[in-house]
Amino acid sequence: MTQTDPVPCAASAPPGPWRTAIRALSVNRSAMAAFATLLFITIACLMAPFYAHDIAHTDPFTSNVAGSFMLHGQEIDIMQPNDNPLHLGLSPAGPTWHASAYLLGADSQGRDVAARLLYGGRNSLMISFSAALLCITMAATVGILAGFFGGFVDLILSRLMDIMWAVPVYLFAISLSIVTISQGLKIGPFTIESDNLLIPVVIIALVYVPYAARPIRGRVMALRNAEFVTAAKSLGVPRWRILVLDILPNVSNTLVVLTPLLTALALLAESALSFLSIGVQAPAASWGTIIQDGEGLIYTRPMVALAPGLAIVMVVLALNIFGDGLRDALDVRETSRKNA
Amino acid sequence: MTGPLLRAENLRKDYKLSRGQKLRALDNVSFDVMPGEVLGLVGESGCGKSTLGRCLLRLTELSSGRITFDGQDISFLSERALRPLRRQIQMVFQDSYASLNPRRRIADLIAEPLCVHRDKNGCKRSGPAIQARLAELMNLVGLPVSALTRYPHEFSGGQRQRINIARALALAPQLVIADEPVSALDVSVQAQIVNLFTDLREQLGLTYVFIAHDLAVVRQISTRVAVMYLGAVVELGDTDTVLHTPAHPYTVALISAVPEPVIRHAASRTLLHGDVPSPISPPSGCRFHTRCPHAETLCSAKAPDLHLLSDGRLVACHFPLMENL
Questions:
Q1: CATH assignment at residue A309
Q2: Which residues in chain B touch residue A16, judged by CB atoms under 8 angstroms apart?
Q3: pLDDT digit string (tens) for A25-57?
Q4: Residue A334's closest chain B neighbor by CA?
């Protein structure tokens, strides 16, 4: 037997590609900071009912224009006369910066903006994340089928994607929303009411399918011609087994990298639709609907529109930074080179 | 005398290009591979060696011709019908990293053929049987059993090529097609892998089709050599005969192009001028006549057939170099 160069031997159990990626991600500071931000915002939004009932003691879904609240032992009207010389008109209370009452002030209906921000965040994040998952599932199906089988299947699916992508995303989403919001959605025996949150989820997922399917298809086409797939063929491995064991594990990192980016896009789309009143329907809130509420108060009470706006910016930024970190961490060769 | 293990007859492979052009990657390639021999395929880049290797395994579809393995015509069998034969013919690829799925452990990679094919009794292999076979294979290719739990990127090129060889040998094939298995390796590692191929052939009674562009490697491992030029075999014979007394002018040029540490006969060096003609519009007559130092008018008019010389080799030349005979 010929002699062998020594096998690199360190720990007893070598880490798998996923664990290597998580390790690489955990030392990436900006990605971790982004992840912490996302985690914080998500947890805060999930705590919305707790905040509304036990800290702020308000109901953020009923208008309260005649009410008042206590701050430092003083009773303050929610609707206050404007501070112009003639005291014409009323403005909602501004930010108190006290978590116990109207932290970020009230909106034009006298509702606690802070509580609505958390409830709205819950809807916005839930819709955008579900839409991203649904979108990536559909895109993966389309991309993998088109890329792996090629030929006629690819021709049909790719042209379909091209046609969808030729319509501007927002125009497409707005058109679909207007139709479904007015009529609800009937799929066979199932009817989805027009105020169901599933409607924006499905619409947003659908319009971004071509965006995600294209890189997936490209990756699968490259993999289909990879030498290890040829090697598997030469071993007599059946096609479905090549798809499951050789193609899928290697596309999975593309899917994982695309998910946070799609979540960010979905959040923007959701906010836009809700801002236009064709996303989340009143009295439910989302960051988009709160911005719409704040639009009329932009000069007197800018915080109403600013707070959800900043929340969207932070989440989108964090998702993009986290997505970049994921992409770097999941490059198998890259990380192995760094370790070497 | 038993028949050939693998017989290739008039293999032809055309790639359709745009505007109705055709690229003839293989042109009338015929040869036999006898059981137990090592057929070296040599030629410069782009001469069709790798296409030929892939066609023999049916990884690339032939345009026409016939491939017979162990008496059975496999040239146009369906993928399903071909599957039982896959265990008999295996391939080792040039790029040892690209030919291993980076997301699977070595154990899974080598066990793949064992999982896909049933054993001799037609049963699915059990876990312990696979484990035992894996240990045996690792021992055969000179890797420690502990390597089985690792991933491909943790190994050097030479080690990865050992893993590829282990995978190719998992089903105990009769024929291994090695497509430039050592070209991407360091010279010292090349020698180890070539020695491994030689040892394995002796131990397991394997037959190889060994594709290479390095004549030194081919000289060391092959029993017979086929020299290819522009998609066709120009000379085929025993390694010693072909490499010591080449009869085709292209073989002469190929041999004299091998860099030598000590210049022994600088005067006799044959240098070719010009580039390899395009396989889209190959030259008329003998495809080598545009660069051949001995070309005559006949050469550009009529293509020479591969014919037998008195010493048992085949050569496709109107004027084989007789002084060598």
A1: 1.10.3720.10
A2: 151
A3: 888 889 999 999 999 999 999 998 888 888 877
A4: B153
Task: Write down the ipTM of this complex.
Answer: 0.85
Whether B82 has its CB under 8 Å from any CB of chain A: the answer is yes
Domain ranges of chain B: 242-325
Contact A303, A94 (CB under 8 A): yes
Q: What is the pTM of this model?
A: 0.81
Interface contact A7-B95, CB threshold 8 A: no
Give me the mean pLDDT over the B275-293 stretch: 83
Domain tally, chain A: 1
Asked if residue A62 is part of any domain, the answer here is no
Tokens of A340: 């070497």
Q: Which amino acid is at B281?
A: S
pLDDT in tens, B68-86: 998 888 888 888 888 888 8
Cis bond leading into A283, ω under 30°? Answer: yes
Paired with A312 in beta bridges are: none
Q: What is the C-alpha to C-alpha distance for residues B273 and B6, in angstroms, rounded to an integer?
A: 36
Identify whether A90 is part of a domain: no
- CA B307 from chain centre, in angstroms, equals 22
For residue A293, being part of any structural domain is answered with yes
As a whole number of angstroms, the distance between CA B52 and CA B44 comes to 14
Question: Any alpha helices (H) in A184-247, and if so which ranges?
Answer: 198-207, 209-224, 227-234, 239-242
Distance (Å, rounded) from C-alpha A334 to C-alpha A330?
8
Residue A333 pLDDT level (bands cut at 50, 70, 90): low
Q: Which residue of B has its CA nearest to A336?
A: B153
A39 lies in which domain range? 32-56+95-339
Q: Determine which of B85, B91, B101 to mutate to test the interface with A (most A C-beta atoms within 10 Å).
A: B101
Q: Are the C-beta atoms of residues B176 and B91 closer than 8 Å to each other?
A: yes
Q: How many CB atoms lie within 10 A of CB A245?
A: 19
